[in-house]
Amino acid sequence: MKLEFLKLLNFRNYKNLDFTPSENINILYGLNASGKTNLIEAIYMSIKATSFKNARDNELININENSSSIISRYTNKDYKDDFRVEIFKNENKKFYINEEKVSAKEYRKSRFCVIFSPNDLNMIKYSPGNRRRFLDDMLSNVEPSYDFYYQRYRKILFERNKLLKIKMDENLLNIYDQEIANVGTKIIIMRLRAIKKLNEFAKYHYKNISGDDLNITYLSTVPIVLDEDELRAHYLKLLKRTFVVDLEKKYTTIGPHRDDLDFKINKLSSKVYGSQGEQRSIVLSLKLSETDLIKSLYNEYPILLLDDVFSEMDFNRRRYFLYSLKNTQTFITTTEINKYLQSIDAEFFQINNGRILV
Asked: Which end of the chain, N or C, is more open, meaning fewer C-beta atoms within 10 Å of its C-beta?
């Protein structure tokens, strides 16, 4: 899959931009706050229909304007399709494929991208929520049914937590327990399958980057068994067992929303022992592995978006990372073009105040 053309109207600091990228590596360079990350965000939105920054719609629209458009053309083997996202201050976004209005779900279908942003570096050491977000975003990318079960789970969890805060009907709570165990089990199984495949790729990349062994471990609040029915039964029993604690805390203490990941280097947890360089290498390995995972499942390369990825990367890591990008259309932002970047086969675009200089 390749982005052939992108047009922005009133998006962030871009009033009117026409952008025709290279099929391979694209370097977007310029001063801070010039619009490099905004362009990456627009490409991401042209595929995923939402912002990777979790921005509100009205924050995406150029100041003093009421609407914005992201227009794109993607090629996939012998097919070309036109896509459009319309963003409004006081209405929901609208999505079009070849001028036909579609749902957000239909719009996102069968196109893939992987993004690296500086915030990803916080994933290894800090909040479990960051690691779960990485996992959920990855599953949303590779597993078509994941979003359905994830949204369903969040809704049931919200209702169960509401019951725990008030004088509740125990019969109603039992119904929610059954349902949350059903949906939560589906999510855990999908996560385990994806991590198993991801781990194979990540071990390979991390070994090549650092020479050490990396292993990804899923830390579940529910005892893991491989049989789905057995896992569901364990889940339901544990919900009953933790009922008193849940009632006291007034929220659900077990389930996928409380699970975590651990990244072990040579059998030691990187959360505790990992250096800053090792953490960066893990994240880079994960992004390359997510790209490999998509290729293995769908026989298609995703678009790779790398926001400020090279700022603190040494020569060997840069070389390996760029070597691994063969056949992948890639967009890289940077504040300066050093000798190393000048030496690679790439198209260079200077960004200045919402414009591409030619």
From this structure: C
